Known about the structure:
The structure holds two protein chains of two kinds.
Chain A: E1 2-9, H1 15-23, E2 27-31, E3 38-46, E4 49-55, H2 67-79, E5 83-89, H3 93-105, E6 110-115, H4 117-122, E7 126-127, H5 129-136, E8 139-142, H6 151-162, H7 178-192, H8 195-200, H9 203-211, H10 215-221, H11 227-234
Parallel strand pairs in A: 1-4, 1-5, 5-6, 6-8
Antiparallel strand pairs in A: 2-3, 3-4
Helix pairs in contact in A: 7-9, 7-11
Chain B: H1 6-26, E1 29-30, H2 38-46, H3 52-89, H4 95-113, H5 116-132, H6 134-148, H7 156-162, H8 166-172, H9 179-188, H10 198-208, H11 213-238, H12 259-293, H13 304-316, H14 322-331, H15 337-349, H16 355-362, H17 365-377, H18 382-392, H19 395-422
Amino acid sequence: MTVRVALIGNPNTGKSVVFNNLTGSRQHVGNWPGKTVEKKEGKCTHKGVEMEIVDLPGTYSLTARAIDELIARDYLIEERPDVVVDIVDASNIERNLYLALLLMELEVRLVIALNMLDMAESKGYKIDVEGLSKNLGVQIVPTVATEKRGMEELKDAILQAAEEEEKRHHHIVPSYGEDIEKVITKLTKIVQKDQDLVERYPPRWLAIRILEQDEDALQRVKGSLIEGELLEATR
Amino acid sequence: MNPASKEDLEVILADRRYELISRLLEKTVTRGENRWTLSDLLDKALLDKYVGIPIFLAIAWAMFQFTYLVSTPFMDMIHIFFVWLSEYAALIPNELLASFIGKGLIGGVGFILAFVAPISFLFFCIALLEDSGYLARAAFVMDRIMFKLGLHGRSFIPMLLGFGCNIPAVMATRSIEGEKDRMITILVNPFISCSARLPIYVLFAGALLGAYVGSAIWSMYILGILVAILSALLFRKTLFKGEPAPFILELPTFRRPTLKAAAIHMWDRTSIFLRKVFTYLLTGAIALWVLSTFPWGADVENSYAGMIGHTLEPIFQPLGFGWRGAVAFIFGFMAKEVIVETFGILYAVEGKTAISAAIAHSMTPLSGFAFMAFSLLYIPCLAMVATIRKETGSWKWTGFTVLYGVVVAYLVAAIIVGLGKLLGLA
């Protein structure tokens, strides 16, 4: 079997270094379909399992406004990689986790590579990796990509995540507080009425995007029988 | 449901996410006491509202001064080598072949090859600045000005990339949110002085401006940035009205740059240049040699190149560029280095090897300076035009950048010559 892995992360987190470490010379550079944006793919074999690794553009968020973000988001939605590795800069963990939350909403099989841990420690941060991992319900692998530290562990974690059953992720469901959750629940229920949408998108994810009036998500529900009902509910 | 507007909800949800994150991190992450690191102290000065820009300008000036001083002996050596080689080429019995090798290949390709020295040294310096983390700070300082002027801050990052080559810079604009901001950034990017212009500055400033070479080269880079910013402002007010979106710019901590990384970066740029020399610039040299040697037997002034140059000469008459300049600009569309090559070949065909002296003889320092500015601004190179077409998806805007560039170049060159004459410089 082949495990399809997508690497994602904020800019400047050492994502490319992780990609290079994992794939070595087995890389292929092409373009994203219809775009002039460079697409890097590579392969690696770990414990007899072949992994196909795609390096997604660095991004802070997953709104559909900049081309980079749109590419990353489309890939995650349309291609549904087996495992998504979010490279998190440990010394900027607060902002970096924002993307991680969005990924959890997309219900991907998530592994976090907590990179640049050495830098964070020299800045005086102390991170309880195990505790954080438990809180998030996500495997967290500490890495120092520039020194190739943690790469074997990262590959192990990817394989382990790939074996998780479909639709049964262990991560938490990011909660928005009672008032907003009420609306999200209502919207989610409406989305669930359209079997076609449910098959393509995580319903809760779609509900939140609709609540945010995300242009791309509004396009995706266009023409659905529940479109009117959804829009009504957000008013 | 609260009657909250769209934007509000997006912001509220983002806020809640951050709240959730801080709750998650509360028990698992402890921050050390806020120590002032050396990096913070440096930033205090480098990012300062008032001294930040002067520091940036000073560092850039020192970089160009250093580049020119260090590369000159290497350039001289390479030049002497090719002059020596061309003496051997002259011994070839077949006159046509002798001319092709001696004047076309050695005069053109050999001449441009010498500029490998300043390109290598400049990119060595840029790599050091980039790896140390300073370049990102320069972007930050510039961003503050640009944002005040109503431009998208992220615009400056593609611009910084443009110092290497404008093409990847235009491609990098895809990270800019909003089509208007992106278009503006693409349209002004050709004004950022890429490495292909460096040989032109080195040749003309070196030949004409004596002690001010480093400053003159530096001023071209600043001119490019200024024209880009002013043009962006103009486009924002006329073609693409609207407010820029704010953005986060991340500043990496200062690091000690390594020689190895800088050397790799330098070799990247140098090898790109070398590849260009033996493909584009070789083709350019052959074309130019043919045009300046034929009709066979005529002197250069009456060759095809001479005819083209003399036809266009009146346009550049007020600027004092001469007919050779006109020929150079036509062929410079292929790649800007071809401008330098043109002078090399035209003079070689005339039998001259001391190109700098020949330039000093045919152009005033003031015209030379205007010539540098015109070369910088007048038209993006062929590959760049193709990239702009691809990225904007529009022939209309591509044609616009070309025309706009020519007009701006002529205006700026005319202003330089006019002001210079007013000030009594000739």
